[in-house]
Write the C-alpha cells for this entry.
Amino acid sequence: MNNQDLISLIRNGNERSRQKGLTLLYNYYPVIKKWLVTNGCAKEDTQDIFQQALLVFCEKCQDSDFTLTASIDTYLFSVSKFVFYAKTRKDKNPSNLDELDLVASNDADELLQKEERLNLASKAFLQLGERCRTILQLFYLKKKSMKAIAEQLSFKSEKVAKNQKYKCLQHAKKEVLKLEQTI
C-alpha cells in the first residue's frame, strides 16, 4: 500500500479501515523505538512517544489540504524525534511551557520541513572544502572571534578571515539551493 492509499484509508475509511491503517503504521514502531532507546529514551516512554506521533499523523490526514512531502516512515520518525526532544527538554526544565502540545499541533509539517532543510544544510556543509568547513566550525560552533580564526589559519588579517567566511557561506547557500532542486 502506498503513502496516498494509507492516508486515504485513515481519512475516508470506516472504523475497520482506519484500524487497518493504524495497524500498518505500527509496522514503523520497531525502528523508531530502536532509535529512541539508542538516543537515551526510556523503553517505557517509546510507545507513548510513537503514539503521539501517530496522533499527529492521523490529525494531519483529516486535513484535506494535507500533502505528504516525505515518506510516512520519515514523517513518523521526524515527529517522534521532535516529541522525544521536547519531552527531554521539558523533563530537564519543567517550568517551560508544555512543548509536547506544540509538537503535537498542526505545525508537524513545519517541523518536518525544518528537519529536511537541516539535512540539506548538513549535506551542503560536507560538500564544502576543508578550509571552508574549518572556518565555519570555528566561527559558529566554537564561537571563535575572527581575529582568533585569522591567527589559527594564518590569514594576513581579521578582514581576510571575515571575507573568507562570507565566501564560504555563499558557497554553502549555493550548495543548499542545488540540493533543493534535486528533491
Remarks:
- Residues 3-109 form one domain.
- The longest helix spans residues 158-181.
- The CA atoms of residues 146 and 159 lie 8 Å apart.
